[in-house]
Structure formats: structure tokens, C-alpha cells
Design brief:
202 residues; L-fuculose-1-phosphate Aldolase; 7 helices; 41% helix; 18% strand
Length: 202
């Protein structure tokens, strides 16, 4: 299957958006879309904010093939998500504020209106090896069956959706909510005060 110009432009747009929004550093993160029993995923070491057509790699979701060696180091995590959920797109991003909260909490519960409406609850998963491990591939899909986005402690987010844009939105929403929680903490208040009052009104 040839990687089309329109598919490349989709990756380029979302990759640039993630970088401009500060959700990735120069070389962090990865993205993929599922097409049948194949997926298109970013190349390992690629710069998501400055993607070129050669930064996209096509691999099977059913097993390793010739391109696996140059695909993202977390390709097997994406593969597991596609095999175990209905997702058609996955974004892994190194959110800053949200990752900071993973070092404090076992879950992130947005207290702002938009965040609580769209996401409500973000599980924080902890792994001995928190980057591209077999354990991540085994556990992350279990949570993404019920949540659109999860956080890996000290690492970043995995969002699963129908499109890259939707997955990007979940990452952006959680990061904005996390900034608000950090601002509340900085003001010397407990975010749970606002969380409880807010959910009593639902």
C-alpha cells in the first residue's frame, strides 16, 4: 500500500500541531493510523514537528516485517492497541504538565469544564520500564478500551481515537486540564476541593 500525499499531509499537520502546542520535544513521541491489517507509523527518531514523507513507515499489525526495524520503537504498543481496541489512530505525546502530575497522582481528574466534559478521568499507569516495554503493550490497550487517553508515569500520554486529530485533541485537553490543576496547587489549594464540588453538580 502506497502512502498517499493526503495521508502524509495529515501526519504533517498533526505532528506540527503537537510540536507547536508544546506537547512534544524536538524528537519525542510517535503517531500511527490503521489501514486494514496494516498501519502507517512514524519512523524512529523522526521529528514530529518537521515530518518528511520518508518519516512514515508502513508495517503489519499482525507481525514483524521488513520495515519494523526502522519504525518507532513503540510500534508494538501501537500494534497491540489496534489488535485489542476499535481505534483507527494513536498518538503518543510527551505532555509536560500532565506528566508532572503522574509523579504526584495515580489518576488525573480534570476540574475544568471542558476537560471534565471530554475526558473526565485519566488513568496513570506505572511500569518498571516505562518506554516501549512489553508490559506497556500488554496493559495499555486494556485501559484504552474504556478511556480515550491514558498516562504512563513519568513518560507521557497514549491517546486512541478514530482520527489523528481526535487523538491530538485528547492530548491537548488533558495537558490544559493539567496546567489548571498545577495552577491550583501553586496557589496552595487542593484540586480535589474543586473536583468534588464540580461533580456534585452533574
Amino acid at each position: 500500500m502506497a502512502i498517499t500525499e493526503s495521508m502524509y499531509r495529515q501526519f504533517e499537520k498533526i505532528g506540527r500541531g503537537l510540536y507547536i502546542a508544546g506537547l512534544q520535544n524536538s524528537h519525542s513521541g510517535n503517531m500511527s493510523v490503521r489501514v486494514g491489517n496494516r498501519m502507517i507509523i512514524t519512523r524512529r527518531g523522526s521529528m514530529l514537528g518537521f515530518l518528511e514523507p520518508e518519516d512514515l513507515v508502513e508495517v503489519s499489525i499482525e507481525g514483524d516485517d521488513g520495515m519494523f526495524s526502522i519504525a518507532s520503537t513503540e510500534t508494538h504498543v501501537h500494534r497491540a492497541i489496534y489488535l485489542e481496541t476499535d481505534a483507527l489512530a494513536v498518538v503518543h505525546a510527551h505532555l509536560v504538565a500532565a506528566t508532572a502530575l503522574t509523579l504526584l497522582y495515580d489518576e488525573i481528574i480534570p476540574i475544568d469544564v471542558e476537560g471534565s466534559y471530554h475526558v473526565r478521568h485519566v488513568p496513570v499507569l506505572s511500569f518498571e520500564f516505562g518506554s516501549g516495554s512489553k508490559e506497556m503493550a500488554e496493559e495499555i490497550p486494556k485501559y484504552l478500551k474504556n478511556y480515550p487517553i491514558v498516562m504512563v508515569k513519568g513518560h507521557g500520554a497514549f491517546a486512541a481515537a478514530e482520527t489523528l486529530e481526535e487523538a491530538f485533541f485528547y492530548c491537548s485537553s488533558v495537558e490544559n486540564s493539567s496546567k489548571i490543576i498545577l495552577a491550583i496547587l501553586h496557589a496552595g489549594r487542593d484540586p480535589k476541593e474543586f473536583e468534588l464540588k464540580y461533580f456534585e453538580r452533574w
